[in-house]
Write a structure and sequence with these properties.
The chain is α/β, with parallel strands linked by helices. The chain is built from 14 helices and 23 strands.
């Protein structure tokens, strides 16, 4: 144990993506292994760790707000800023009196040692001090930072980080500047981590990373499918769920190889952003709408009723009514299980932020509302396909809603399912016959009910 960290109360708050969540779990694990005590963020703590996000200007602002909230909670505490906002907003970090310690993305696994060293040097001359905030290895993102998650954060599911960084440089995105170029994790390390989590009761793994379709390119060639095949052989894992994929990875060969892996969930998140080629070109996306459509066709040919989900940005600079209508009709034709719809938000430091013809928020909202109405209708129809069928479910959580207790889980297609604890033998269900789709007001989400 580290003497300076032992018995310290450490409060942690995470902002942003699933990669950040995974890294936060590892950081909490490291602090506990060093003798620290993790406490809720709204409690008085000795150290506050904020795992920041910078994907939008709003994310930057939320990161700053949480840093200031921590210092307000306990002015004597050490406030630690970690991650993407540190990488892109270092000038602001240096001037922020609320931040005592700033750690870049490539040193998260060393957080306990860094805090220990900081405390040792706090009363003396700290050789990396810049304007009040001690800065640790900003932009040190040339190698993959080895992390190993030893504990299971959820009941049955674990997110597995397989790579970091991105080489795509979409015109609206700052993440390549915050995370660096693609760096893949050694396959043997991933296999070791998964085998360890299986012993803890893990049944489902979810690949996560900044651009997982690029896994392996820094080793010489893409290796995502090979990795999936390797993990498919591990005894004890029941499901392998892929994270967000680049459409171009879905070739006929890859679709067939994935379908041959019986543990792979028929749930694929193919990032779209726009169904209009001229907008895709301005976004610097590296595929056409027709290529995307072909990828969906191949998946539906290889898998039975796969859940296809996506992200769409509306109101990108200079997006005309005609371009949006083209995108709308494309999404309608694809018939997604779910769409995550985002109104374009200019991100300082990106090419798109300086593009002419920025749209008003009113125009963006109007377009967003139309796509949200479309995805609500499509999603309900997709769920209704399963009424009367026997579906396997991995139970994850328990919720009390409307005075009744429910067990909540997901099918392999990531359809949310609930069973009332009043149901006979509810605790023995590994599967059940779907009765109906509940109204959103009952379970606060579109849900199938056993």
């Amino acid at each position: 144990m580290l003497n300076n960290v032992k018995d310290l109360k450490v409060a942690m708050h995470n902002l942003g993506c699933k990669v950040n969540s995974y890294e936060m779990d590892v950081m909490a694990q490291k602090i506990k292994e060093s003798g620290g005590i993790i406490v809720p963020f709204n409690e008085v703590a000795d150290v506050y760790v904020i795992n920041t996000c910078t994907v939008t200007n709003i994310a930057d602002r939320k990161s700053r707000q949480m840093l200031h909230k921590a210092k307000k909670e306990n002015p004597e505490a050490i406030v630690v800023a970690v991650g993407c906002y540190v990488e892109t907003g270092i000038d602001g970090i240096k001037k922020d009196d609320c931040v005592d310690l700033a750690i870049g993305n490539n040193k998260k696994s060393e957080i306990a040692e860094i805090i220990d060293e900081f405390i040792s040097a706090r009363d003396g001359e700290y050789d990396k001090t810049l304007n009040g905030a001690s800065i640790i290895d900003i932009n040190a993102t040339h190698e993959y930072e080895n992390m190993l998650l030893a504990e299971l954060p959820e009941h049955t599911r674990a997110y597995i980080k397989i790579q970091d960084g991105c080489n795509q440089f979409c015109s609206y995105c700052v993440i390549p500047y915050a995370r660096g170029r693609v760096r893949s994790r050694a396959m043997d390390d991933i296999i070791e981590e998964v085998k360890g989590l299986v012993k803890k009761g893990c049944k489902e793994i979810v690949f996560t990373g900044i651009h997982i379709s690029s896994y392996g390119v820094d080793f010489g060639e893409p290796a995502l499918i090979e990795l999936t095949e390797k993990l498919n052989e591990i005894e004890g894992i029941e499901r392998i769920r892929l994270g967000s994929l680049e459409p171009r990875i879905v070739t006929e060969e890859n679709a067939k190889r994935l379908a041959a892996c019986k543990k792979v969930c028929p749930h694929f998140h193919l990032s779209l952003q726009s169904g209009c080629d001229t907008v895709l070109k301005r976004m610097n996306r590296h595929y056409t709408a027709e290529e995307y459509k072909e990828g969906v066709r191949l998946l539906r040919e290889a898998f039975d009723k796969p859940a296809i989900t996506t992200d769409v940005i509306v109101g990108f600079p200079a997006e005309t009514e005609e371009e949006f209508e083209q995108c709308y009709e494309f999404c309608k034709d694809i018939d997604f299980y779910e769409m995550h719809v985002f109104k374009y938000s200019p991100r300082k430091g990106t090419v798109a932020a300086s593009m002419p013809d920025q749209l008003t928020d009113r125009e963006k909202s109007k377009r967003s509302d139309r796509l949200l109405d479309l995805t609500k209708a499509q999603s309900e129809l997709y769920r209704k396909n399963f009424i009367g069928q026997e579906l396997g479910v991995l139970w994850e959580d328990e919720e009390t809603l409307g005075g009744k207790s429910y067990l909540i889980g997901h099918t392999d297609r990531y359809v949310r399912v609930a069973v009332s604890k009043d149901h006979e033998d509810f605790d023995k269900f590994a599967s059940g016959e779907i009765s109906f789709v509940t109204p959103r007001t009952l379970l606060n989400s579109d849900t199938l009910l056993i």
